[in-house]
Amino acid sequence: MAALPDPTSSIVAPAPPRAGVLPRIRAYVMLTKPRVIELLLVTTVPSMILAADGWPSAGLVLSVLLGGALAAGGANTINCFIERDRDQVMQRTHARPLPQGEVSPVAALVFGLVLEVAAFGWLTLTANLLSAVLAVSATLFYVFVYTIWLKPRSPQNIVIGGAAGAVPVLVGWAAVTGSVGAPAWVLFTVIFLWTPPHFWALAVRYRDDYARAGIPMLPVVRGLRAAGRQIAVYSVLVVVSTLTLPLVADVGWIYSGTAVILGAWFVVAALRLGRGMDPERAIRFFTFSNTYLALLFAAVAVDVLVRSALR
User: Fold this and answer.
1) Domain 22-310 falls in which CATH fold?
2) Disulfide check for 201: which of 87, 181, 252, 285 has CB 3.0–4.6 Å away?
3) In degrees to the nearest 10, what's the CA dihedral of 239, 287, 84, 209?
């Protein structure tokens, strides 16, 4: 593995913090990475619908969404605290609140911990203890296994660390049933396998950024060709995993047909990216992968709700 540069060698002094209450509130909100939270919540609701074999109570759905947002926001905030120096040297992340000096590191850490405590308490009171434990366990995994241990040390960081982003489907299922069934684990596997090609595409776009920050992402240490092959392999594995859901869950042709069509589209897009691993194609695949996952999980919900309405 080639040596990576010292990320502290090109740290730029942060800009003066913006004054005012609204900019400060915005800074704290941005620490939680709202766009990441959105995708996590998009996968949670279909899992709850599948677990309930129809619409769960609106109160439970809203409670789980709030608890999940608090837990994910806390995890992302703690991640920003840990990675503040690396974020400062990366083009993609240098405008985040901590590198810009909009929030102090201590305040960010306290904010993240408070969000986690609030998430655990809220989910315990409004859903059940299992869903609360699962939500906080995802944070612990994301912070200690991915952010602190794997990300700065191994090009397999996102392969293993991506498990944290798959836990919300388990949280949703547990909130409805009080347990974690086989269909929930299939949905978990889909997201777990989807995360590497999704994130490696982003790493291709920001390859120089990751190299500058000393983060051994796969495209940095193994090269673009190897990254392209791995993206294609994992994309096939994602599609295969989606086709196993009908074996363990009561889903019908709406989901199955959507999974096949979207899956073919996803694999073709991955193969096209592999033939030309340039930043523009990579970011298009990254964006498409978000759409793919959202549509796939929407198909789960639609399938269940349509069959429930026809009974």
Assistant:
1) Farnesyl Diphosphate Synthase (1.10.600)
2) 285
3) 100
